[in-house]
Every structure is written in structure tokens, then in C-alpha cells.
Amino acid sequence: MIMAKQGKEVSTEQRGSLIPWRSGTEMARWERDMERMLGNFFSGRAHPLFDDRSWPGSDLGIAEPKVDLYEEQDQIVVKAEMPGMTKDDIQVSLSDHILTIKGEKKKEEEKSDKDYYRSERVYGAFMRSLPLPAEVNPEKIHAAFKNGVLEVRLPKTEEAKKKAINVKVQG
User: Fold this and answer.
1) Total structural domains in the chain?
2) pLDDT over 50 at 56, yes or no
3) Which long-range contacts (CB under 8 A, 24 or more apart) does 88-96 make?
4) pLDDT confidence bin for 135, thresholds 50/70/90
5) Are 57 and 127 in contact (CB under 8 A)?
6) Per the domain annotation, does 101 fall within a domain?
7) What is the mean pLDDT of residues 76-99?
8) Which end of the chain has fewer CB atoms < 10 Å from its terminal CB, N or C?
């Protein structure tokens, strides 16, 4: 429970609580939801049955690997964190200007003779779909997986490489 005291928030939760603390989780989830809704709306893919939050472990990040999406020279680059996985666990596809990364993080064999005090690692299927900011050449896409990071390089089409014309503003 959080109480306000002279303009400051004060936590009244007891120390040693078994409820996991997730800093910023609600705000991050809200941001992802807004990004997904707007992306789905503009791509025409909005449908509540395919909401990523319905996947097991989505609140812990396994359903949506953390990604960087940026432009570098004449290509779009996507980097996705996937620790503990191999390249054989991952599938990458492109359809209608949307890059989809799917896979499964397999659970290690458990030993029943262990008494766990904490178990936070999550296993299972995941999927992340990213609308691309520019047209890309599907014949020249390159993907590499190294040290738990997937890197996908998507060269832009000649049409997408054209730069915008700067217009002088007078006033």
C-alpha cells in the first residue's frame, strides 16, 4: 500500500514480503499496450483474440523479447534479447511489412530434490511482431544470433532510401 505524506509517497508494505517487486512494470505494460493498439489499428490487424497478454508469462517479459529497432544507413536493424536460447529455438518471418520473431525457451530438467526459495525464470513460447518504419527488400534480409542476441538487418528498398526534401520556412 502506498500513502501520501507531505507530497511524498511512502510505502507501507512490510519488509520481506513474498510479493515480487517489479519497478515500472505497470507503466511498461501500459506503454506496450498503447504501442500494440496503435500499431494494430494502423496496420488493420486489431483483434482482441490475438492479444499478446494472453500468452503465459507475458507479464514477465517472455512473450515479448526486449528489442531495439533503429535505422542505420540504408537499412533497418532489429536486435532482440533472447538469453539462454539457441538459433534453432527461433523463427523470423516478414509479412506485410511486419517482422515477426517467434520461438520457445525450453525448460531445463528440474531436480525434485531441491527446495527452491525463489524461482523467477520463465519458459515457454513467445512472439513479437514489429511494424517496420520503411519498405524493405525481403530477398536481402540477414539474421544472426550471437551471445543471446538476435540481430536482423533489413535493407531498405530503393524507393524507401529516397530522402525527404527540405522546405525553407519563411516568416
Assistant:
1) 1
2) no
3) 90/145, 90/150, 92/143, 92/150, 92/152, 94/136, 94/138, 94/141, 94/154, 96/43
4) very high
5) no
6) yes
7) 94
8) C
